[in-house]
Model the fold of this input.
Amino acid sequence: MSEFNASAGGVLTRRRFFESLAAVGGMSLVLSGMEALGYGMASASELPPTLTGGAKNTKVIVLGAGLAGMTAAYELSKAGYQVQILEARDFAGGRCQTARKGFKHTDLLGNTQVCEFDDGHYINHGAWRIPYHHRSTLHYTKQFGVPLESFVNDNDASYVYFEKGAGPLAGKPVRKGEIAADVRGYTAELVAKAASQGQLDAPLSGVDREKFIAYLVNEGRLTKDLAYKGTEGRGFSIHPGAGVNPGPGKELPPLAFKDVLDSSAWRVLSSVTGYEQQRTMLQPIGGMDQIAKAFEKQVGPMIRYSTVVEKIRQSATGVTVSFKGADGKTGEVTADYCVCTIPLSVLKQIDLDASAPFKAAMEGVAYAPVNKIGLQMKTRFWEDKHHIYGGHIYNDIPGIGSISLPSYGWQGQKGVLLGYYNFGGEAARISAKKPADRAAFAVAGGQKIFPEYAENFDNAFSFSWHLAEHNLGGWAEWGEDGRKNAYPVLCEPDGRLYLAGEHLSYLGGWQAGAIESAWQQIAKIHARVQQA
Done:
């Protein structure tokens, strides 16, 4: 039990204690304790800045009608600014997109897809969930009347499937709840026995030790002799029911501790213990693009669609943006300031009038290859046959990443599940396939877990963000050096050019990051206008 020894000074600090428990694989043991000690986290901003004092006839050009761009336009226009938005696509939303029947996309490889899902079914191939603490996003869903529903981000009934693990659980779907209960129980047993024998080198009094052991007994469902023998919370092989048969039912016996550890399935238990991945998540009813559409109702008249930015010029008095419209004709627009929300992966390729340090800083970030595929199934077999309602199927199948079951349309006939969600090299590898081959790959992967997969497959829609012309990546990936040296440079204006988007936040890849970045930048513009 050396993992639980105190530091050289003999004092068991909170940090050391939590780290020690985590090292054994029992992070779930301490999550509630961390929350009790007040270690919760939330997005930094809850409300947009108050822009008082008048706009002084100031004009602002916003580049990009994603959530950052529309947030900036909405708040600035409310304060009296004259705003125009240039958007390269023929619709607003940026990465806040939903594919449903009729949605069309052509990627950089020339693959054109038209979504064929049945009416009422969809896949959020961009943003797809909202943590409860992303208060900036929720500020607008409430203000604009976008109805929400629960997104199941954690489900003990879902499967864990690891092919590369060892032992009898390798290549076998196992309920996440079974793994969680057994890891928690066996870990609690080890810690409780060590604590009862005084083997925790910590300044715990006798009373404290008794309370700690009582906590472990309760948390791990241990017996009086501090042994883990299983718990009804992990499930039943025969469910309780009426009469004497099935009567009390029959509890599933625990998996052997060694088998659980050898399987590596316990690695997924930290999936909802981090800041970004919470058990309680939300989604708009009918698709994530309902948020984009709600913004669009507010700022739609300000948007010029199918307008691709080609050049950005600035002087001491203003900014001029040259563009090409849908008809192929060029034009330009001039304003006092520019809020640019174009991803840096794309902005690097635009003729930009900016300082050398600013341009150099733009090279300090990479963008993640990201793939998603929606698979429409003829029946909701995961509910009907496996009794899984939402959540993720964690697995180690190369290229699949994770499979996620829909949190909409419970007990309907059909449903669209997320057949793969992967990043990096695996995303690049799968995206090189034709759409039909991507679908076949996803179906073959899911078939390993669900025997009903292939026979129920109906149609598919896949999206690769690194192959999307106006994105060239899913989200910004900052390294340590980039965050330290390049990021601060880009957070400040270069002349009259202000950048905003998820890439200029520590909430990378999330809508809240885009929104809060826009809030910061429009506050800076407004302060500058007031001082002029």
